[in-house]
Amino acid sequence: MSTVTAEALSDTTLLRFATAGSVDDGKSTLVGRLLHDSKSILTDQLEAVERASTSRGQDTPDLALLTDGLRAEREQGITIDVAYRYFATPRRRFILADTPGHVQYTRNMVTGASTAELTVILVDARNGVVEQTRRHAAIAALLRVPHVVLAVNKMDLVDYRESVFARIAREFTAYAGELGVPEVTAIPISALAGDNVVDASAHMDWYGGPTFLEHLETVPVSHDLAHCHARLPVQYVIRPQTAEHPDYRGYAGQIAAGTFRVGDPVTVLPSGRTTTITGIDLLGERVDSARTPQSVTVLLADDIDVSRGDLIVPTKDAPATTQDVEATVCHVADQPLTVGHRVLIKHGTRTVKAIVKDIPSRLTLDDLSLHPHPGQLVANDIGRVKIRTAEPLPVDSYADSRRTGSFILIDPSDGTTLTAGMAGESFAAPEPVKDASDEDGWDF
Amino acid sequence: MTTTVAQTGEGTVSPYALSHLDALESEAVHIFREVAGEFERPVVLFSGGKDSIVMLHLALKAFAPAAVPFSLLHVDTGHNFPEVLAYRDRVVAEHGLRLHVASVQDYIDRGVLKERADGTRNPLQTLPLTEKIQAERFDAVFGGGRRDEEKARAKERVFSLRDEFSQWDPRRQRPELWNLYNGRHAPGEHVRVFPLSNWTELDVWQYIAREDIALPRIYFAHEREVFARGGMWLTPGEWGGPREGESVEKRLVRYRTVGDMSCTGAVDSDAVTLDDVIAEIAASRLTERGATRADDKMSEAAMEDRKREGYF
Questions:
Q1: In A, which residues are within 8 Å of B140 by CB distance?
Q2: Is there a contact between A407 and A423 (Cβ–Cβ < 8 Å)?
Q3: DSSP string, A354-365
Q4: Do residues A366 and A135 touch, judged by C-beta distance below 8 A?
Q5: Is the CB of A13 less than 8 angstroms away from the CB of B2?
Q6: Which listed residue, A125, A153, A181, A229, has the most CB atoms within 10 A of its CB?
Q7: Using CB atoms, which residue from B9, B147, B275 is nearest to A217?
Q8: C-beta neighbour count of A143 within 10 angstroms
Q9: pLDDT tens for each residue of A83-139
Q10: Residue of A nearest to B39 (CA)
Q11: Phi, psi at residue A260, to the nearest 5°?
Q12: What is the ipTM of this complex?
């Protein structure tokens, strides 16, 4: 970080990304290389790693100790949980969800990918696209992560040959395309030697694209949600009831998708009452419009009943409410999810009772085949689920909105988070690459 | 309007992307409001340090023009910097807040806790904190912890469930998906909430500069009498320094963190303005805790062990 000046840091964006990789494909090395070459590892951290490595009798500093923060992880030499890391360049700040690669940790990849705008899938150049690669691609597609990077690692072990890279990139892109992944960027790297991670490689003249870090710095963020259906889950009603603000009644929340403007006719769900936005307060300042993911407070023309759990939407673009939700889910708890299970469903800011009516299929990630009526889902399973809710919910399709199309199931007896859910179809239909002009305007 | 449209590089200008500070601010406000909506008795841990000051600022914005619907809780080690206590009392009065104090000195005076041989009181904070949480039946406790501070904290959830003994069990953590935080807990349990999880030290300073937030003046370079112990500059005081053989000298220093005087070190610095501080942090090759906290150097898993016991 020594190259970063205060002025350069004043106006950067934030990119959240997640890594996925199997055990030996060099994920830790890539993360270590990225942090090291971007000068994000500080002296005392490196010293602590050197101290710990020496006391274990290791000759060289074990960079995995930087990322494995828990006693159990260090003792066993494995990563058991998602860790979040932070680094910065003059152009952008990064939040990296560092997720373990073992197949039994599918839930961790789902956790990391749920907030990521970009997923990095690592492949060993010697092995090419393997089962684990297809699993990672499938999860990225299910979670609809907007950008996928295929990092073809260990190029130094295949003599930096273009043909090796081109074959893997072609095979992966075709597979990802079938799953509906909107964008794949393939980059040939050697995490160990440092080729194309932060600095351009001297060994691969044939590659004309960006380095891994350059791509992370320039990929567009947050552009996809601002012009979809506007959605504001009401978190909290702000009523000061003071002499200065005797009649202020504002509905606070983080805009989950789209843009709201003063004057917009809106509908409050699930009641269906309609009114008009008369004011938007952006953390203490009055504004004319606000967009995702801003936290705002809106004021409405009519004094209608609105409370936590309601969803404010444009009247002309309101989702249907339903008590029957069909979704693709990833089961994240150790106890299984079974048909007949009574659960709570948290969707946006609303938590209601629900019952699992059916589990029509379980997905085999290796070949994307469906196992019909598995009876239950166990930890790390991905499957289709039908849920009946006690009250109507305005659930969007996850394809339209990652925020209002997602939900979690909670065990009502002990509060355990059971399942991550994505409403609607599992995989996107392949679609032509969007024209860049689609993203230009503010109007929709 | 404080929101800025950031430009990220050639051909990648997105009119929709928030600047990183706006994105972090919006996320933290969302977290504050979730807690206000779902819990009965939340409280904000407030030490008068920069992270808790930023938390309070965010809470004020989140509920404006209404008052913050939480009280504050300070764990007073008895070895706090007088400037910081004065700052604490000033903001509490200014915003009409309610302040709870859990006092380590009380516990020592009653004989419940014993002074440690090394004089540090940081590990002694856990019992007064957890007993106060139980006594007041707080069900959500906001902390200013950031994941960039320490490797055990990098594994911490935004909503972190604690049992009736306030213990943290990293294996029992709930996966956190999208922004759907799960605050369910049994009676006696509570949830620690970390709205600044995704902030770095630099983000905190940039935000303080952008929002023009007042800080205790010990964060800025000043002449101070200090003495060296364990590779750090400590402030002399009744808490137990200097000992024989340790000599006091006057130096130009500032604090990067504010905590117990016995284990919080000052750094040599001539940064007198926020811009100076930001430039200094950006160029520093030491982490905040590595530079100034003695207690984290005790063992490789010092923070994890304290967190397991109920430390924040």
A1: none
A2: yes
A3: EEEEEEEEEEET
A4: yes
A5: no
A6: A153
A7: B9
A8: 26
A9: 888 888 888 999 999 887 665 678 888 999 999 999 999 999 999 999 889 989 999
A10: A236
A11: -115, 145
A12: 0.89
